[in-house]
Amino acid sequence: MSKYSIFTIARNALSHHKNWPRQWRSPEPQKEYDVIIVGGGGHGLATAYYLAKEHGLTNVAVLEKGWLGGGNTARNTTIVRSNYLWDESAAIYEKSLQLWEGLSQDINYNVMLSQRGVLNLAHSLSDVREGVRRVNANRLNGVDAEWLDAEGVKEFCPIINISNKARHPVLGATLQRRGGVARHDSVAWGFARAADACGVDIIQNCEVTGIRREGSKVVGVETTKGFIGAKKVGLVAAGHSSTLAAMADVRLPIDSHPLQALVSEPIKPVIDCVVMSGAVHVYVSQSDKGELVMGAGIDAFNSYGQRGSFQVIEHQLGACLELFPIFSRVRMMRSWGGIVDTCPDASPIIGKTPVEGLYINAGWGTGGFKATPGSGWCFAHTLANENPHPLNAPFSLERFTTGALIDEHGAAGVAH
Ligand SMILES: Cc1cc2nc3c(=O)[nH]c(=O)nc-3n(C[C@H](O)[C@H](O)[C@H](O)COP(=O)(O)OP(=O)(O)OC[C@H]3O[C@@H](n4cnc5c(N)ncnc54)[C@H](O)[C@@H]3O)c2cc1C
To answer: Global pTM?
Structure first.
């Protein structure tokens, strides 16, 4: 892997940037791999990278039906934080945040992590109680968290409207200063480049159309490029997890929903933090290009169409204007949707399935981008050791039969 540095940029500038090498190979699939990862999003690519880096497993392929990052990885609004309520969630998301903090150096690729602070607004007494409780729970788990009153919110984000005449006045907010945003497609590209350098085969335009079993054991996958054998198969396909698992006769407790987001025309820098509100249902940050990046909640119906309903956009813009009247004349530029995989307890599934050799990493719903490095790290451990790491052991599929659910619906009304 050629090392990226200021000197590489300067050297390539001399040749008008025409001689940059390809970042990863495009190999034809081999007959068999030790591990096949289905899904070339951030989570799948991170899994492949950590399999090679942490466990020395390099006879690995990532199969992607489209192009790298064409799924939710490059459709999300890039919020990164770790201030989840329950001990199990705080531990795994905090591990992820710690990996984020060293990721650009680790994979030698700038993922543009910007720890600009994430505010979760409170608009009612119950929001305040929930927020203060979460701050206390976070601190007990070693996660940085602060409670701000309305004036503190205004000081941190001067353009926010804290008038008590608003329909839902701002009463305070939780603040995680280490939270922020990162550049989503860089995450996919950076992990792909680093995994490829370790010998992982990344195969795009290769859709998995079937999962072949011999008795209770998985032996490989049928694809649009033919059958590929595998000792172990890891499904990391976000919104398509349940259709893939069904190919191996595994039924997942997952619903797939459209989730959309939008950006405004680029404007001068006006907001240097992330603001989320579960009650009025919108969240806003500003990209490095100057666009306001906004999202809200999922569409209530199940769908695999990557588009959402107009009323969700209308509602989120109404909510945005209530919080930021200054944006009233900003024009919206673009909206898009992705398919998110939601579990009944709003927590992911990372572990084994009833089929020997078949593993699943899914159910991240509306909030898996922030988990990308941590999820890949834990899933790689699980695949390599054929047993979960203590960090992901609570997120097993069995919890839906044992009843040991990890209900994170309350972690933030808009759970990104
Ligand atoms: C609009 C929107 C906003 C979001 N905002 C945030 C946010 O601010 N913060 C946050 O933490 N999270 C957010 N999320 C959630 C986050 O994007 C996802 O949880 C996370 O990206 C999912 O993991 P992934 O990156 O691996 O998924 P994906 O990138 O979707 O990867 C899965 C891949 O599997 C491939 N695939 C599917 N079926 C097959 C098949 N049969 N064969 C081969 N390949 C297949 C797909 O093509 C896809 O590339 C948001 C999501 C959306 C849609």
So the answer is: 0.97
Distance 237 CA to ligand 1 centre (A): 7
Tens-digit pLDDT profile for residues 227-264: 999 999 999 999 999 999 999 999 999 999 999 999 99
Whole-angstrom distance, CA of residue 377 vs CA of residue 392: 10
Most ligand 1 atoms within 8 A of CB, residue of 233, 366, 375, 408 to mutate: 366
Gap from CA of 365 to ligand 1 centroid (Å) = 9
Tokens in use for 10?
Answer: 């300067």
| Bridge partner residues of 257 (DSSP) | 340
The dihedral formed by the CA atoms of 221, 225, 229 and 230, expressed in degrees to the nearest 10: -60
d(CA 373, CA 50): 9
> Are 253 and 355 a contacting pair, CB within 8 Å?
no
| Rounded distance from Cα 124 to ligand 1 centre (Å) | 32
Question: How many angstroms separate the alpha carbon of residue 70 from the centre of ligand 1?
Answer: 8
The answer for residues whose C-beta is within 8 angstroms of residue 182's C-beta and 6 or more apart is 78, 80, 100, 111, 112, 113, 114, 369
**How distant, in Å, are the alpha carbons of 80, 376, 394 from that of 87?**
18, 20, 10
Report which protein residue has its CA nearest ligand 1's atom 32: 237
Q: How confident is the model over 76-126, as pLDDT tens digits?
A: 999 999 999 999 999 999 999 999 999 999 999 999 999 999 999 999 999
CA–CA separation, 226 vs 245, rounded Å?
19
> What does the longest C-alpha to C-alpha distance in the chain come to?
67
38, 50, 67, 76: residue to mutate for ligand 1 pocket, most atoms within 8 A of CB: 76
260: exposed, middle or buried (C-beta count within 10 Å: 0-12, 13-18, 19+)? buried
Q: What is the phi/psi pair of residue 175, to 5°? A: -130, 125
